[in-house]
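Exercise: predict the fold of this chain.
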Amino acid sequence: MMNHHLLIIVFAIYLVQRLSELWISSINFKKLKVDYHAKLASKWDSVRMKLLHLSWFICWPIEALMTNRKVNFGLIVSLFTILFICQLVRLHSMKMLGKFWTINVYQMVAHPIVTSGLYRYIRHPNYLIVYFELLFIPIIFGSYCTAIVFFIFNSYVIRQRINLEEKLLSQESDYLVHFKNINRFIPI
């Protein structure tokens, strides 16, 4: 039987995290607006990403509470370990990007490229983390339908977002020079 207290704790932690990311992103956007004349690249992209995450936050707890599936303890421990590592990677990514870390894609003038830390090995470590979170958190609570559906939706949304982001970075910087031999997610 699922532990409802654990569900509430995990839900609260990720909700606070996402809300703090909105706050950090808004602070960074203000800096980018002043320093690089940043403007939102695509309102639809931002809306789509926010709807995806909001829907996910609604679906996995509801499915977990409705189905009350038992999940293997070893699987739970393994996935929580991966999610802990994901948080470290997220913090590293945010630190490396600094004021360039935002939840939206912005068009900017003379955008410098970050090539340090994990960005030496993969182009989008933060998006990789989102893949893991949207897949593994529902699995921990037995929300298998949510995990599958949102993995598919997230794959589409992230691909659209990365295409937009890389197109803009290629137009406004030497992005392709730095990342022509670096994969998006797998450092091989």
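Check your answer against the key: Residues 4-36 form the longest helix (33 residues).
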